[in-house]
Each structure stands twice: as C-alpha cells, then as structure tokens.
Amino acid sequence: MNEKFSNASESEILEFHKKVADNIRDFRENAGISQLDLALEIGIKSVAFYSNCENLRYGKHFNLEHIYKIAKALNIDIKELFS
Q1: CA 19 to each of CA 38, 40, 41, 43, 54: distance values in angstroms, whole numbers, following the listed order
Q2: Cα torsion for 69, 53, 15, 26, to the nearest 10°?
C-alpha cells in the first residue's frame, strides 16, 4: 500500500483489525460459543479460516458481512465490536 496516498497507515489498519478481532473473541468466549459453532452460524464452513481471521494470521481478517453476521449471532449491537 502506498501510504502517502492514504489517510491511515498500515499499522493503524492492523491495530483496527486487531481491536475488532479481539472484541469478537471476547464476546464469543463470554457467550460460551466455540470458533467452529460461530463459524458455521455465520456461513463459514472452515474453522481454520475463521480462526485465521480471529487471530489475524496470514493477513486474514473479518469483512463487514462477517462482522454483521457475528453481531447478529452473538445478539449484540454491532457497535460493540468496534469499541
């Protein structure tokens, strides 16, 4: 990414993805739901892919559709995943 044409650095974006992923993990664990169960609930057939998103491995992260479905599955306001 050419940062001089962006209003956010790569490290800022990585920190944003980390915050969202950490919040998702916290809400999921507090609800007593496994990665596999949540992955299947939101239409992800691969727990490995879900785990990679939750742990930011291999450059994977949740997209907006995932985040919407996760909030719905966990019965929380989507805003809580961003705070």
Answers
A1: 18, 22, 22, 22, 10
A2: 60
Distance CA 80, CA 71 (A): 8
pLDDT per residue over 15-52, tens digit each?
Answer: 999 999 999 999 999 999 999 999 999 999 999 999 99
**Token pair belonging to 43:** 């239409």
Type of residue numbered 46: S
Q: How far is the C-alpha of 74 from the C-alpha of 37, rounded, in Å?
A: 11
Cβ-contact 20, 56 below 8 angstroms: no
Look up residue 67 and give its amino acid.
I
